[in-house]
Amino acid sequence: MTAVASISPSPARRALDVLLAGSTLAVCGAPLLLLMLAVRLTSRGPSLFSQRRVGQGGRPFRMYKLRTMRTGLAGPDVTATGDARITGLGRVLRRTSLDELPQLWNVLRGEMTLVGPRPETLGLAERYPPECRWIFDHRPGLTGPTQVRMRDSSVLPAGPVDVEHYLKVLVPARTAVDALFLQRPTLGATLSVLADTIRHLSGRQVRAAAPTAARTEH
Q1: What is the rounded average pLDDT for all residues in the chain?
Q2: What does 146-205 look like in DSSP terms, one character per residue?
Q3: Average pLDDT over residues 129-134
């Protein structure tokens, strides 16, 4: 894979980040608080899950999500659909992507952008194939082509995840799809991916761009 020139989101894309992230947080503030309460009431542990992820230029940042897993259980960084650590409510939150609403705060802070590569865990990032590490030159996204078209439910078994297969096969496939967007990350291309995201969340079919890969959530 040929590396793509490293750039930050354009001023227009950054303005879109602030506008959409800020307005969505304002509208969804009360529902988000209710979801946080539901997480606390249905399983032991905090409402929010935070973890250091790899940001633009390889700089770590702390990413936030609604907690979807039971606390105190060890496991791989790549989470399969049937992972025993996922709570009942967590399955619903993951299926609807509501668990990712707190990442809008990361978008407002400029640590993430609305559309970009999925933020990887530090441990997995260190093991990426050399030809795929260019992806860390780019600001990670709340959504993106791989998040829409490459879901773990379609490629990972319900049992333990083969991390070596993920790194050697799925990571190259995922970065290849990301490259298609990152070569021309225009405002129009960004809006197109956001439209695909809405189609996916509403249950409508989104045309696959490449062989599927996994979400890297913990």
Answers
A1: 87
A2: HHHH--HHHHS-SS---HHHIIIIIHHHHHHHHHHHHTS--HHHHHHHHHHHHHHHTT--
A3: 96
